[in-house]
């Protein structure tokens, strides 16, 4: 299996190189040169298997040649051993044809743990083999950062810097990033929004001198391995509901388009996914793009679902690449227009392609709060605001096929919003009960590439 860049000008790489490289050297994102497929029989055989076994079977074609079956099994087992739920990703029924896929039973209470715990294992194995050390820089709107810190804290050959938008993540999210005491962990509060944090991260990757000097590595969804690990739970959910003999629809609360892109990969692998529904909060650039065929950036408006306060949706580039028949030059031009002119028109053929696979909707702040309250009353399920955006949009898209809505975070990560909607302040799990008492440690930085690069150079352990 080879991986190629969406902008067509970077070398093709194997799996481990792709994982350790992060952003392609032409500024693009790596994708598989061809998505492997599974037969209906192979998919049917997944039903009822433990999550770890499904992960091994779904991921093997992507990693084969780089990780032996025995190694992959060992690393997958280690990745999910710390999850609180035996099913890892349990399904709950919300209505006659509507199911919630709970993805918040990992160590940091968000879906990010599914991929981050696994790439933590895979990257450590790769580093042990190569003897290298790396500097991870990540950008977060709240959840990627804590998941990355949890996966890499205390490692002697890895330094971790997480850029988060100052004042724009929940207090629990911030404390998850600022309270780990290990000296390889650095939480950096940037004066800017998530888009600016992600842009500075990409700037660092595009500065090849800096990138090589510090051994820069990425654990955002820039890193394709992150997204591939997220493909697995689409298979566990769909086969539990009757796939491959039955089609399922999926609604995904969306910001950076990584989680829904994983659903698109699952579908391309042969999983019978009907509609993939993009659910956005008031930062609805993806909903507008799908509705109008034009992508135009607006201002990032803070919301009660802060992890989705994103206007520059990195992984959209990956699906556009397919929508344009894998024409890297066109993608490079579109991404330049997004950056220089604030937007671009999607060509008619590409727009048709997108509409063939994706539906979309948005939830206002009031609709999100109302959905949290209504779902609690009707089902007893307490949703986080991101999951509530998903449920609101899914309810408008229910059809004949079972609908799976992804519940992406635990309500206790957003206690203020949940309490405002329901009067209930969800408690943190006991293992995190002292989070508010732990001392915090963070560095404040301007939204400035040079300042951030200096900080990384000075604080990383050479
Ligand atoms: C809780 C939560 N829900 C939804 C999303 C959106 O996911 P994606 O950025 O993969 O679209 C995020 C951020 O990634 C998140 O942290
Ligand atoms: N919502 C994310 C934003 C970063 O997304 P990623 O999937 O590219 O890591 C977050 O919580 O940080």
From TrEMBL:
The modification N6-(pyridoxal phosphate)lysine is found at residue 112. Its cofactor is pyridoxal 5'-phosphate. Its EC number is 4.2.3.1. Residues 2-80 form the Threonine synthase N-terminal domain. It catalyses: O-phospho-L-homoserine + H2O = L-threonine + phosphate. GO terms for molecular function: pyridoxal phosphate binding; threonine synthase activity. Keywords: Amino-acid biosynthesis, Lyase, Pyridoxal phosphate, Threonine biosynthesis. GO terms for biological process: threonine biosynthetic process. Residues 92-347 form the Tryptophan synthase beta chain-like PALP domain. The keyword Protein transport does not apply. Pathway: Amino-acid biosynthesis; L-threonine biosynthesis; L-threonine from L-aspartate: step 5/5. It is an enzyme of class 4 (lyase). Pfam families: PALP, THR4_C, Thr_synth_N. InterPro entries: Ser/Thr_deHydtase_PyrdxlP-BS, Thr_synth_N, Thr_synth_N_sf, Thr_synthase-like, Threonine_Synthase, TrpB-like_PALP, TrpB-like_PALP_sf. Transmembrane segments: none annotated. Belongs to the threonine synthase family. This is Threonine synthase.
